[in-house]
Amino acid sequence: MRILGLDIGDKRIGAAVSDKLEIISTPLEVFNNDKKIKEKLQKLINEYKIKKIVVGIPYTLKGEIGIQAKKVISFVEDILMSTGIEVDYIDERYTTKIPLKLLKIKSKSKILDKFSASIILKDYLDRQKRKIESSK
Fold first, then answer.
1. What value does the mean pLDDT take over residues 21-47?
2. What is the 3-state secondary structure (H, E, C) of 68-107?
3. Is the entire prediction scored with pTM above 0.70?
4. What is the DSSP letter of 10?
5. Which of 123, 112, 91 is closest to 3 using CA atoms?
6. What is the pLDDT, as a whole number, of residue 20?
7. Fold annotation for 2-134
């Protein structure tokens, strides 16, 4: 089974998927956040046999839930909870800056959304691995 990572924005949603061993995060695609988003995400869930969804939460720099974070939580409650798949959140405050530097992109673009989703997912996978290792 795999894990789906999502970078949810007002206009677009970036998606990434883990490998079956939950080690590697691969950017998939970017969807328009429109009326068909639930169908598109369900198709991904079915295609990749997703067992968990990881969503980046854009906390404020102070670590608080701001306007954008509330929109993401609302999206999860309205769209993702109906899939029956477990949803986990992860702090995404710096995920946009990383791909901007790595890809040498000067402004936010469509390609950035899927790489941000991949970084969100990779961060989650790494944290899970550290938890397992520290419990041994």
1. 95
2. HHHHHHHHHHHHHHHHCCEEEEEECCCCCHHHHHHHCCCC
3. yes
4. S
5. 123
6. 96
7. Nucleotidyltransferase; domain 5 (3.30.420)
